[in-house]
Write a structure and sequence with these properties.
alpha+beta, two-stranded antiparallel sheet
Length: 106
C-alpha cells in the first residue's frame, strides 16, 4: 500500500484499502504485462490496461481481434498471416520463402 495513510495500492495491485478490512491484491493479467511498467491495471478494479503479446480482455485472457491462439500461453498469432500462408501454398516460389520465414519466425 502507498500513501501517508496507506490509502492506495502499489503498482500492479488493486483494491480499496480505505474501507474496513480493505486490502490490495495483485492484478491478474496472466503474465501478459510488463511488471516493471506503471499503470498495468486499474488501481480500484484490477482491470488490465496494458496487455502485451496481442492479448486483451479484462485479465489479458483473450487474443485481440484479428488474432487467434491461446492468450494464456502467449500464442496469439495474426489471422491475416495465417490466411496468407494458406493462400500462397499453391505457389512454389512462395512456399520456399515461407518455409525459411517460418523457421526463423517461430
Amino acid at each position: 500500500m502507498l500513501g501517508i495513510r496507506c490509502d492506495s495500492c502499489d503498482n500492479n495491485y488493486y483494491g480499496n484499502p480505505t474501507v474496513p478490512y480493505g486490502f490490495c491484491e495483485l492484478c491478474n493479467c496472466n503474465g501478459n504485462i510488463d511488471p516493471s511498467s506503471p499503470g498495468n491495471c486499474d488501481a480500484r478494479t484490477g482491470e488490465c490496461l496494458q496487455c502485451l503479446f496481442n492479448t486483451g480482455g479484462y485479465n489479458c485472457e483473450v487474443c485481440e481481434p484479428g488474432y487467434y491462439g491461446d492468450a494464456i500461453q502467449r500464442t496469439c498469432r495474426s489471422k491475416l498471416a495465417h490466411v496468407c500462408r494458406v493462400k500462397t501454398i499453391t505457389e512454389n516460389k512462395v512456399i520456399a520463402h515461407l518455409k525459411v520465414s517460418k523457421r526463423s519466425t517461430f
